[in-house]
Specification:
By secondary structure, this protein is of the alpha+beta class. The chain has one domain: Rossmann fold (3-Layer(aba) Sandwich). The protein contains four helices and ten strands; from the N terminus they run H-E-E-E-E-E-E-H-E-E-E-H-E-H. Strand 6, helix 2 and strand 7 form a beta-alpha-beta unit. Helix 3 crosses helix 4. The radius of gyration is 20 Å and the shape is elongated.
C-alpha cells in the first residue's frame, strides 16, 4: 500500500510543472495533473453483495481440495478442519465483491478497475473479506476506481515435515488459485462487454485499463497472472 501511495505522490509531483488541462467527465477515472490523488475524491462508496463467477453448470473436472493437515484455525473457530481430505466439485469459493463510487455518471465515463487478491498462504481459513483488502478497496474507490475483491480456491499442506518432502501441494495450490484468477478476469471482461445482460450492476469499467495486485499469497498469484 505504501508503494502505491508513493507512486501516486510521484505522479502528482511530476505533474506540477505541466500545463493543467480542462476537467472532463472522465477526470475521476484518469490521472489528470490538476487532481491530487492523495486526497479523497468520492465520499459515497458502496460494496456489492458477493457475486459468483463460477460456470453454471460447474464442470465435473473442477475440484476444490480441502486437507485435514491444512493450516486451519482451531476446532472451535469458524473454520474447523474437515473430517478428512476432501476433493469437492464445489464452486462456492468463486465469488467476488465490487467496491465503487456510487455518485458517478458511469454512462458518461467508465472508471478504471483494480483487482485485489487477499493474503493467507493459500490456506483454507484465509478469505477475501480480509480487513486490509476491504479497507484498501474502499480507499482506492475514494480515489476514483472500481475495485474488485476476488476469492479463489484455497487449500494447501506443508511441503516438508522435519525436512522430509511429502507433498506437491505448495505448487498445486498456487496453480489452482491462478487458474481461478484468470477465470475471474475472463468473466469480468465478458460481463462488462455485455453489460445490458446485467442491469443491476450499475458500475462500468474501462476494460483497456485494468490493474491487478494483492497481498502476500495474493500478490504472488497476481504477479503470475499479470
Amino acid at each position: 500500500m505504501k508503494k502505491l501511495y508513493f507512486l501516486l505522490l510521484c505522479l502528482q509531483i511530476l505533474c506540477i510543472d505541466s500545463n493543467a488541462q480542462p476537467l472532463t467527465s472522465c477526470d475521476s477515472a484518469g490521472l489528470d495533473c490538476s487532481l491530487d490523488l492523495r486526497q479523497q475524491m468520492f465520499f459515497n462508496i458502496t460494496t456489492s453483495s458477493p457475486i459468483s463467477y463460477a460456470k453454471n453448470p460447474l464442470p465435473t473436472s473442477f475440484k476444490d481440495v480441502k486437507y485435514l493437515d491444512d493450516k486451519y484455525g482451531s476446532t472451535t473457530s469458524s473454520c474447523p478442519p474437515p473430517p478428512g481430505d476432501q476433493c469437492l466439485n464445489d464452486g462456492s469459493s468463486l465469488v467476488y465483491t465490487v467496491t465503487y463510487p456510487k455518485d458517478h455518471d458511469y454512462s458518461a465515463c467508465p472508471l478504471k478497475a483494480i483487482v485485489l487478491f487477499h493474503a493467507g498462504g493459500f490456506a483454507e481459513c484465509s478469505n477475501y473479506q480480509l480487513y486490509l483488502i476491504t479497507t484498501l478497496a474502499t480507499d482506492l474507490a475514494q480515489k476514483g476506481f472500481v475495485v474488485y475483491d476476488a476469492e479463489y480456491r484455497r487449500g494447501v499442506v506443508q511441503d516438508t515435515i522435519n525436512g522430509t518432502y511429502i507433498t506437491v501441494q505448495q505448487q498445486l495450490a498456487p496453480y489452482r488459485a491462478e487458474q481461478d484468477e484468470r477465470g475471474f478476469f475472463r468473466s469480468m471482461i465478458k460481463k462488462e462487454r455485455n453489460k445490458s445482460s446485467f442491469p443491476t450492476e450499475v458500475w462500468r469499467i474501462d476494460t483497456n485499463n485494468i490493474f491487478i495486485g494483492g497481498m502476500s499469497a495474493g500478490a504472488f498469484s497476481a504477479l503470475n497472472v499479470a
